[in-house]
Amino acid sequence: MTRLLVALALLCLAAPTWAQVAVAEPEYTGSDRVEAWEGKTILVVTPHPDDDTFTSGGTLALLAPKNKIHILIYTSDNAGSRDPSMTHERLAAIRKAEEEEACRNLGIPAANIQWLGYDDGMLEYVDRRELTKQVSRVIRKLRPDAVFTVDPGAPYEQWHKSDHRTGGYITADAMRAAEWRLYFPDLEAEGLAPWDVPVVFLFYSAQPNYTVDISSVIDRKARAAASHSSQFGDLVDRYDKTRADAQRAPLAEELKNRTAKEDGRYVERFRRSEAY
Considering the entire predicted model, what is its pTM? Predict the structure, then answer.
């Protein structure tokens, strides 16, 4: 994700924008509140290593101590650099290390991160049937109680990086395919029974209807987001690990200050849906 796209993403997270529409939030109380969940399995399906942290890092930090969180990443994010000495392979390794560090800050072990490994910006050119099958396989295997992923219907995503559009639609299709046994019969032959995902939390949404108070973990989210330092400032133009490490603390403070607030609370917003 390049500097410009990160800036746009953070603007989208920092406050309601022209693209967002006010939607009344349904009444979710007690154990219906995701923040109160215990013993659940959560699957986060993200286009790049950082979209999960920027959009859902606080919520994931709240969930991590008492639930099992898995991260599925479509791309290696191996193209978001203008450094003339950078290569796809080197950048992929940098992004992998940054994602693992971000997840460590959120309480998610590296063993729970799965990479599909597609090239950054090229997801729309992957065979869609095979891609849907791959994600459906993961869903059937993990049998998650909830999926966090990109809202495929958000106007912002209609012109934003194609990995977001493609990832959002493929994830939605994969959830449906995971539910119906005749979509991919060979998955059942692999011993993977159909699974109907009970609830979805869609991020980067233009119509959020669910707000999570992340005030108690905002510093952890900010540190996690700052782990992706290769995607900020002049490090996009010329990457240096020593400078990247040195910039993380001030970057974390900057990102904390950009985080959305509501009534004095730091928040994350999602479109919560049981319709998939």
Answer: 0.90
